[in-house]
Design a protein that fits this description.
By secondary structure, this protein is of the alpha/beta class. It is 61% helix and 7% strand.
């Protein structure tokens, strides 16, 4: 164990090893899961905003903060595949999270070993792997959560202005990414459990901490106020109300949905963390008598937002829980380190680590190799793999339309005006002037006269992905693509066939 202890003291070694492993796991087959509805929307926003400065705040038209799309605007300039470019932003965010887990463990528990194990658990966690490989906001949310908790702990222990300023900058950046970042600011008072109440000048130091927190809070709000430059700023609160009950509505039914929400998000959490990792995080409270306040702080940063989501959540998805799981990963890492130091036998330590991490690693392997059979959380398997929001068939349709457009102008109509279609097609085909893409919603029961006229002039196609029944139009089925492992869901590609009147 002495040699092992020396290895823990070399974080550069682990940084190199974990960096190499991280990018293999995150970049391997990064685009083999087809584009998902929300990814198509965000990437298309980034393309529009990247090409037209007047649309840099385009995400706010749908009540979404713009930081993630801003980062994709940069990424799109370096990669030709827009889906790869969009997902690469999350890959980089996840890398910063993995490094952040090391510094969080080292900062909270003053232990390099805990930090290294926490980074490794992030590396192999299926929860982190899943969202570090998707062009969604939530991996970046977790990144800000990890680093802001680290800075909050540093601030309460060291009471330095430079820490407060950096903390304020990252708080503001997180708020530019997603509204849930405000929870970090609301949770800052819990870090007072780490305040040294035994030192002299306690009152003076406490007021200094309050002042520094106010500096960070004000700075974060100044940064967030950048969004007020957009005339669409008001839509953010409207969009938030679709996912979380405003207090005025919540008081009318305070606990009606609590049990169902709590049961649902708990199931998602256990599915992605696994029971062994969750149990290890809970056992952190009892495996060692030291660091009691640090462990209670981490538990509070999980259970308080978790409970708030169960209380106020209106529309919930597993990805909303991702950032809340980071303290649990750190607590489970703490348990493994404490147990390893007590056992002191390398073989037994390895066996325990395998027992704790094997379920997570099996799910991560399935995500990388055969996601259609991976046991994802119920809220995700439908969205990303087996139901209409998933993008199976998109790549084949894009290749087909490119081939047809090489022969002359074509028009493509899609079921829907916002979402997977037409955005997924626009993401790949917006640079082809010979292809016209138009969305239809509500979907007409009979063929509109304008589409009939178009079909008489040029090859005209229809893409459907929600309606399984063939529309009552003069259509010729060209191809049908099953959604993941669900034979009852598919994307259909039709050609509109109109016979000219003689």
């Amino acid at each position: 164990m002495k040699h092992l202890g020396n290895v823990w003291k070399n974080p550069v070694f682990w940084l190199i090893v974990f960096t190499f492993a991280y990018f293999i796991l995150r970049l391997t087959r990064l685009t083999y899961l087809p584009i998902f509805t929300d990814e198509a929307i965000y990437i298309r926003w980034a393309q529009i905003g990247g090409n037209d400065a007047s649309w840099r705040f385009i995400s706010m038209t749908d009540g979404k903060q713009p930081l993630f799309t801003w980062l994709m605007m940069v990424s799109l300039r370096f990669f030709s595949d827009p889906l790869f470019a969009g997902r690469f932003v999350s890959v980089i965010a996840g890398y910063l999270s993995m490094i952040g887990m090391y510094f969080l463990g080292k900062t909270v528990f003053k232990s390099r070993a805990v930090g290294v194990v926490a980074s490794f658990m992030y590396l192999v966690s299926p929860f982190c792997l899943m969202y570090d490989r998707m062009a969604l906001y939530d991996s970046l949310v977790a990144t800000f959560s990890i680093w802001n908790l680290t800075l909050a702990v540093l601030l309460v222990r060291h009471l330095r202005l430079d820490i407060a300023l950096i903390f304020g900058l990252l708080l503001g950046a997180g708020m530019l990414n997603k509204t849930s970042a405000f929870l970090t600011l609301y949770m800052v008072p819990t870090t007072l459990v780490l305040f040294d109440w035994r030192k002299t000048h306690r009152t003076k130091r406490l007021f200094l901490w309050v002042g520094l927190v106010l500096v960070a809070a004000v700075l974060s709000q100044l940064i967030y106020s950048v969004l007020r430059l957009s005339p669409y700023f008001y839509i953010i609160s409207q969009k938030d109300a679709l996912f979380v009950y405003p207090f005025g509505e919540w008081v009318q039914h305070p606990f009606r949905f609590f049990y169902g929400n709590f049961h649902g998000i708990s199931d998602w959490l256990i599915t992605y963390l696994s029971w062994p990792v969750f149990i290890a995080s809970v056992l952190a409270i009892v495996v060692r008598c030291k660091n009691t306040w640090e462990k209670l702080l981490l538990l509070s940063w999980w259970i308080m937002p978790f409970t708030a989501l169960a209380l106020f959540g209106r529309v919930l998805y597993p990805r909303f829980v991702l950032f809340m799981a980071m303290p649990l990963l750190l607590l489970s890492a703490y348990t493994l380190v404490v147990v390893a130091r007590r056992i002191k036998h390398p073989v037994y330590c390895l066996i325990i680590a395998i027992l704790v991490l094997l379920p997570s690693m099996r799910l991560s392997y399935a995500i990388l190799t055969d996601i259609t059979h991976a046991r994802l959380a119920k809220g995700d398997i439908g969205q990303y793999v087996n139901d209409w929001p998933s993008g199976w068939g998109t790549n084949e349709a894009v290749d087909f339309f490119k081939q047809q457009a090489s022969k002359g102008p074509i028009t493509v109509y899609t079921e829907g005006t916002f979402g997977l279609f037409p955005y997924a097609l626009e993401v790949y085909l917006h640079t082809y002037p010979s292809i016209t893409i138009e969305g239809l919603w509500p979907f007409p029961d009979t063929l509109p006269e304008g589409i009939r006229e178009t079909a008489l002039r040029m090859p005209t196609y229809l893409v459907t992905y929600q309606t399984e029944k063939k529309p009552n139009w003069p259509l010729e089925l060209i191809a049908q693509y099953q959604k993941g492992g669900n034979p009852d869901r598919s994307m259909r590609l039709y050609q509109i066939s109109i016979t000219p009147k003689k």
